[in-house]
Amino acid sequence: MEEQSTVRINKYISESGVLSRRKADAAIEEGLVTIDGRVAVPGDRVPVAKDGTPLAEVRLKDMLIVPDDRKVIVLYYKPIGLTCTSKETDKTSIYHKFDYPMHLNYVGRLDKDSQGLLLMTNDGELSNMIQKSRYGHEKEYIVRVDKNIDSDFLKAMSSGVPILDTVTKKCTVRRKSDRTFYIVLTEGLNRQIRRMCEALGYKVTYLKRIRELNITLGDLKPGEYRELTVKEEKELRRLVMNGRS
């Protein structure tokens, strides 16, 4: 007997690249989706083989839906107020706003009060390689704090700050204005920049990620996204593989 598991019908549709999960839910509610000829209902599950091959015929109207094995990387501008979580019950989840016609996972996190560049992909291997701090992949942020910064603050931030029972790695920090600075990290501790600033007596009032490796936020606005260009993706994969070696 072939080993199998099941996948929620809305996830199956989104991962097939036909509709986003939100639009899949709407199509199911409207009775437009069938599983082996039966009208699907919310919460239905599709049986799949161990290798991901569907063991049932899923259709949207008359269109057969099959898994999509394309590797996709998307640059998303995460707005303030959204949470990097896949929990459907969390109404602040980015997936309630990120309306892409395929399920993609976020690469790393930005906390609810932060905004900016968030890579989204279905390439699990690439995602894992980007997130491993030992490879030293750069992430750049622009940060504003609640009072003026001085040379002592910049030196302390760049030299390493004791937080979470460790000391942060040395990093690049440069002043932008009296209360604003740029910082380039090669690790990703939980709420790292906020904790570093708090340890030095400052409170972050604005935090935006503007670059990850070679990918920059550019002129995207909050809530907007775009797929990487062929050139961007090629360079990203080269940098990731070089870091791996």
List the helices and strands and how they pair.
Blueprint: E1 4-8, H1 9-15, H2 21-29, E2 33-35, E3 38-39, E4 45-49, E5 58-60, E6 63-64, E7 73-78, E8 105-106, E9 115-121, H3 124-131, E10 139-145, H4 151-159, E11 162-163, E12 166-167, E13 172-175, E14 180-185, H5 192-199, E15 204-212, E16 215-216, E17 225-227, H6 230-244
Parallel strand pairs: 9-15
Antiparallel strand pairs: 1-4, 2-3, 2-5, 5-6, 7-9, 7-17, 8-9, 10-14, 10-15, 11-12, 13-14, 15-16
Features:
single chain; 245 residues; alpha+beta; four-stranded antiparallel beta sheet; 6 helices
Could you explain how this protein is built, in words?
This protein is elongated. Helix content is 23%, strand content 29%. The chain is of the alpha+beta class. Helix 1 crosses helix 2. The strands form four sheets. Strands 7, 8, 9, 10, 13, 14, 15, 16 and 17 form a nine-stranded mixed sheet that branches.
Low-confidence spans: none
Q: What shape does the CA trace take?
A: elongated
Estimate the mean pLDDT confidence.
91
| SSE arrangement, N to C | EHHEEEEEEEEHEHEEEEHEEEH
* C-alpha end-to-end distance: 41 Å
Number of H/I helices: 6
Share in β-strands: 25-35%
- Percent of residues in helices: 10-25%
Over all CA atoms, what is the radius of gyration?
21 Å
Structural class: alpha+beta
Largest sheet: 9 strands, mixed
- Kindly state the number of beta strands: 17
